[in-house]
Structures are given as C-alpha cells and as structure tokens.
Design a protein that fits this description.
Blueprint: H1 2-17, H2 33-38, E1 45-47, E2 57-72, E3 82-83, H3 84-87, E4 91-95, H4 104-111, E5 117-122, H5 125-132, E6 139-142, E7 154-160, E8 166-174, H6 181-206
Parallel strand pairs: 3-7, 4-5
Antiparallel strand pairs: 1-8, 2-6, 2-7, 2-8
Helix pairs in contact: 1-6
Length: 207
C-alpha cells in the first residue's frame, strides 16, 4: 500500500540526486516494528496505525487520510449511507500486515456492539483491488483518489459514522539517527513526497 505510493517517486529522486544510495524495504508485523527499530534491523518505519513510540524514538506525521469503503460495482450494489450496521452484514477483505494488533476500524465496530466478518487479509492494496473485482466483498481503507490508479468499476464511498475514521501515516526512527546526514536527507525526501501526495488527493476531491 504505502510503499507503492512512496517508493516510485523516492527512487526517482534518489537516482537523480544520490545514485549511490541503496534501499531495502521490509514488511514487518506492527507489533514488531519498535523492536526492529531498537535492534537496528531497520533505519525507519512508515506506518498507518497508532504506534506509541518509546522515549528514544522520534516521529513525524507524513499525512492524514480518512478511511472509506471500496467495492466493485460488478460484484455489489450498495445503496444509501454506508453505516457500520450495514457494513457489518457484508463480508470484508482487509489490506493489513498487523500481526495480532486490533485496527481502528475493528475498534469502531466494537464501539457499536458490532463485528465485521473478515474473510481475507492480504498484505497489499493491489491484491485487495483484484479480490474486490472477483468477489462480492467490501474493504475499508484509505483510498487516495487522484493518486492511486483505480479500475473504473471500483466504487469508493465515504463511511457514515459518528466521527470520521482518520488514519495518520507516521514515520518513526531511533534518535541515534537524528543527526546522521543520509538519514536526515531520506526523511526530508519522504516528507516532501508525502506532502505532494496529500496535495494531489485534496486537489482531486475539490474537482
């Protein structure tokens, strides 16, 4: 998901400005991310779930986006406001690499005394889109219209909830890297790219 949005422009910038830099991207379960930072297994993490950093971690918010519901018009016809009550009656596919962590979406359902029926969990948005086009399922996630390339039959609908389900995309790193030159350069580039993605999504919504 996030890597497919951030990596292409990041690699383009690095090839133009710092061609000697090599990147290695890993998918790590959410409940292992902070330990991976501490063990220096990774230099930074970019995450779209609440992650309480430890005293020696530093964080910046790259963007904030609102969760929406996606489905294929070839598979489902959904009418009227999409309440959690209505969505609890449907089958869901989720894009997640969470391990045992509970998502903000599940917490929102639980607050209403509901539970969604997740029939598949996959690690990438691209897989989710293909599944939605093949089966009568829905998926609640961030969809950056104007940034992500979506097929014509994929319908993205706002959720009808008491409060918007907003997701912050954060970048975290260990403070031992605070003044390291290359690390600072990468943080700056990623921040600029994330800001441009947010601007593109806002421009698309305003049209």
């Amino acid at each position: 998901g996030l890597e497919s949005l951030i990596l292409p422009p990041l690699l383009a910038r690095l090839r133009a400005e710092s061609p000697g830099v090599r990147l290695r991207v890993q998918l790590i379960e959410v409940d292992r991310l902070l330990d991976a930072l501490d063990a220096d297994e990774v230099d930074m993490v970019i995450v779209g779930v609440p992650l309480p950093e430890r005293n020696w971690h530093e964080r910046t918010t790259l963007m904030t986006a609102t969760m929406q519901c996606a489905h294929s018009s070839r598979q489902l016809t959904l009418k009227g406001p999409l309440t959690l009550q209505k969505l609890a009656k449907l089958d869901h596919v989720v894009s997640s690499y969470r391990g045992e962590s509970v998502s903000m979406v599940d917490a929102a359902f639980a607050a209403e005394g509901l539970q969604r029926n997740v029939v598949a969990a996959v690690a990438g948005v691209a897989s989710t889109v293909r599944i939605l086009r093949s089966a009568p399922l829905v998926s609640i996630q961030v969809v950056l219209s104007g940034v992500m390339e979506l097929p014509d039959d994929l319908v993205v609908t706002p959720l009808h909830t008491r409060e918007p389900l907003n997701m912050s995309v954060d970048m975290l790193w260990h403070r031992r890297h605070r003044q390291q030159g290359l690390h600072r350069h990468l943080r700056t580039l990623i921040g600029e790219i994330a800001a441009s993605l947010g601007d593109m999504a806002c421009s698309s919504r305003a049209k």
